[in-house]
Amino acid sequence: MKSISISRRKFAQLLTVGAAGAVARPALTLARAAATAPSATTPTVVRLSSNENPYGPSVKALKAMTDSFNLAWRYPEEHADLLIESLAKINGVGRDQILLGDGSSEILKLCAETFTGSTANGQNGSGPSPRGNLVVGDPTFEAILQHAAVNGAEVVKVPLTGNSFSHDLPKMAAAAREGLIYICNPNNPTASITSKNELRDFITKTPSQTMILVDEAYFHYADSSDYESVIPLIKDHPNLIVARTFSKVYGMAGLRCGYCVAQKETIERMRPHQSWDSVNIMALAAAIASLDDPEQVANGRRLNGETKAFLASELGELGYKSIPSQANFVMIDVKRPVVPLIQAFKQRNVQVGRLFPALPNHLRLTIGKKAEMEAFLSAFRQVTA
Fold this sequence. Notes:
The chain is an alpha/beta fold. The protein folds into 2 domains: 77-291, Aspartate Aminotransferase, domain 2 (3-Layer(aba) Sandwich), CATH 3.40.640; 295-383, Aspartate Aminotransferase, domain 1, CATH 3.90.1150. 36% of the residues lie in helices and 15% in strands. The strands form 4 sheets. A 7-stranded mixed beta sheet has the order 2-10-9-8-7-5-6, with helices on both faces. Helix 2 (59-68) runs antiparallel to helix 9 and helix 3 packs parallel to helix 9.
């Protein structure tokens, strides 16, 4: 993704206005967090369970966050407009084709509420009116399944293909009843991809009354020649939605900022289900600054790739393999039920991924810093001995 610098003057002006309110008040900076840091006697927990970016936000994003403290009294509409403007230019779409979310998780929730389950009232108030089911791969990221179930939708799980752990698109298409098909690509928890040719063909052939949500949360980490974003296909497919997030390579999981790209009419169908101003001003400021940092994505990809290769080599020497990963986590075949191992790691202050019932002998592990992976490997040797 290329760096941009549009509206930087306007962005700086917004922060300057807020700075005026800081007069006669103590300086508020991220450095104050050090005062509440754990003491040296607190056990160190190695957290490799949530696919977070251990290197955190860019320096530019951190500064923008600090500056935005002085704008906490403002509603975030102006910053939201600036981020939408930036994202529209980066993705080559109109401003009215972008919808921001409180992380991409909110985008998934909005899609479930808009396109699955039943409406509150049918025609002429005659009772519930069906909107369709949700079709997903199995295993995949579970949040949208929960949202659809709460919405009264039937959820259909289609097992991933046996060899490549890709989405079985023909079977997913056959299971769809209008509603929504969810494709996480690269997929969580397997870190595998569905090939660009298969996905493009599937999108082209899917009937327009069935919506397709492609979750590209891990897009920036994928480097396979068989992978590509499907955002360019949106112009020809009104039933296609693509979700993105700042939680992964941009290191902003705790701030909650994401978005989706779709045709204008699709965005307008989703918007009424969303709370006003759901993305906070600090997250918006950090996201805007992140897009203007050309090093953030490149460094994140490089560091992730180096550490992932180190982990694969060490696991290989121990006789263990992983599903080929196109993300910032791996799915390790531990050759035994994973639940006892998860608990054994926890006892050693190492947090690993949760159980995914479709793959009961696989352990999902976030790629952390090299020292964290060494701590994991030390515990892994103990629990698998």
